[in-house]
Structures are given as structure tokens and as C-alpha cells.
Amino acid sequence: MSPRQPCRSAEPGRRVVRPPPPTVRAERHSLAPGPQVSCSAASPELRWTREAERRGPGGADRALRIVLIGPPGAGKGTQAVRLAARFGVPHIATGDIFRSNVDRCTPLGRVAKRYLDGGELVPDDIVIDIVSERLAEPDCRHGFVLDGFPRSAPQASALSRRLDELGTPLHAAISLEVQEEELFQRLAARARADDTEQTIRNRLRVFAASNHPLLRYYEQRGLLARIDGVGNPDDLTELVVARLKDLMARPITERRRSTEVALASIVGR
Ligand code: ADP
Fold it and tell me: Would you call 192 a catalytic residue per the annotation?
């Protein structure tokens, strides 16, 4: 049974043709923007970001550019919204972008639907294009919280290339880690159209297959923070912020060196 009725997906077996850029671009403009954060309610982190903006050239280095990694149901979305609001940067969720396009039966939505309904990943070229364009939007000037992208090492390396082009490298990759049994219970209690039992099982399987190389990619670059995703969401946000500050306070070369030492000791064991 297909959980989404109104929009017909592209025919199975046919090669998926990426929608032409102008159409995709038009979709992008109709996406809901990230949360608007008022300056008067600025948290210390937000003030920190805004002060950095005022500092002008070089100041943008203190903005927040992070990706959230984790299985379906790990709470990435919840934490992403909170972090984005707290740091005054947009929250970019690829799953939301696809669902919004499916609901509106756009050309992108028609292509994406069959993947979402089956719990499969949308092809890399489509996702990478959409995220690359989104990151060039003015509201990403001082950072972003990416949620649901990248999901694989090839997506991560495409993101690094794009950020290098923009001269704004990633600060951190936060991996929220939750046991599969707990995930299944959380997802079963949620009422999203692509949360059928079969789709959940497949999404968890797809996640497991691509996650290890993705974590390794970020670990080797000294960007990874692994966090236990079980617990009170407020406490979890504080934990993520503390780990972020900790990570960002250490130069990237030092972080890489400690990863190399850790990897060498594993190999040498
Ligand atoms: P979840 O984390 O629960 O799987 P998301 O909202 O992040 O939920 O994603 C929903 C669906 O959107 C995925 O199952 C997949 O089909 C598609 N999707 C989202 N992000 C990506 C991505 N980076 N690469 C490929 N497909 C994606």
C-alpha cells in the first residue's frame, strides 16, 4: 500500500531524469525558510554569531556550520530546529524538502515519491544539487544546520567540495546514536506518511549500510562528535552545544591528530 495517494510517482524501472534546474530552483524558493529568530531574544550563542557578523571579513569563520547524522527516529529534526534557532542559522532538512515537494506534486516530488515510499535514498545527484543550491542562499551566509544530509560518504565529499568552493568549511558533524529497538518504538509512535512498518525497516537497513563510511569520513577529518541520543531533549541540546564548543575550540589539525592516534592504536592492537 502506498501511504501517499494524491501524487503518482515516476514509473518503476525507468531511469530517473533529474528535473531541469529552473524547476528545481523554483521549488527551492517556495520552501519554508528556517526559523526566524528575533535579535531581542538573543541567546549568548546567537549574540556570539551576530558579533562575529559585525566583525566583517573573517568574522564569518565563527558562524555555525554543522551536519546532524543519525538513524530515522534519533531526534535529528528536534535537535536541528533547536540548534538552528539558538545560533540564528537556517535549519535545512532534506526529508522536509522532499515531503513538501511530494505533497505539492511538483516534478521533483513525483521523482522523490517512489524513493520515500520505499524507504530508499533519493539519488545522490538530485539531493546534492538541491543542497548545493540551498547553501548559496543569503540566509546561509553565517551558517546552517543540515539535517538528513549527508547520508553517505559520497554525499559528504560532495558537501565538502561545495563548502570549499564557498570558502566556508564545515565545523562539525554530530552523530546522534540510539539503539535500534528504541528507534523502532519511537518511529511506530510517530504519524508520518513514510513511517509504515515496512518502510521503517528499510530506512533502518539503508541507514546501517551507509552510516559507517559516513562516520569514518568525518572522524578522519577531525569533525565527528558522537552523542548518545537517549534522554531528555533539553538536556541533549545542552550536551550537543557543549560538545560543539569543545570541538570548535580545538584547532582542526589537533583534532585530526588525535583521530589518527586513535585509529593507529586500533590498527596496532
Ligand atoms: P528519516 O531520518 O526518518 O529517514 P528524513 O525526513 O530525513 O527522515 O528523510 C525521509 C526520506 O527522504 C528518506 O527516507 C529518503 O528517501 C529521503 N532523503 C532525505 N535525505 C536524503 C539524502 N540526504 N539522500 C537521499 N535521500 C534522502
Answer: yes
Ligand 1 centroid–CA 252 distance in Å is: 29
Nearest CA to ligand 1 atom 10: 95
**Active site annotation includes 151:** yes
φ, ψ at 246 (rounded to 5°): -60, -45
For residues 54 and 66, give the distance between their C-alpha atoms in angstroms, rounded to a whole number: 21
Q: Could you tell me how far CA 15 lies from the centroid of its own chain?
A: 26
Contact call for residues 144 and 135 (beta carbons, < 8 A): yes
Q: For residue 210, give the H/E element and its range.
A: helix 197-220
CA diameter of the chain: 56
Catalytic, out of 192, 221, 226, 256: 192
Encode the chain (269 residues) as per-residue pLDDT tens digits: 344 555 655 544 444 444 333 333 333 322 333 333 333 344 555 555 544 443 433 344 458 999 999 999 999 999 999 999 999 999 999 999 999 999 999 999 999 999 999 999 999 999 999 999 999 999 999 999 999 999 999 999 999 999 999 999 999 999 999 999 899 889 988 878 888 888 998 999 999 999 999 999 999 999 999 999 999 999 999 999 999 998 888 887 888 777 777 667 666 65
pTM across the whole model: 0.79
Instruction: Determine whether 110 is an active site residue.
Output: no
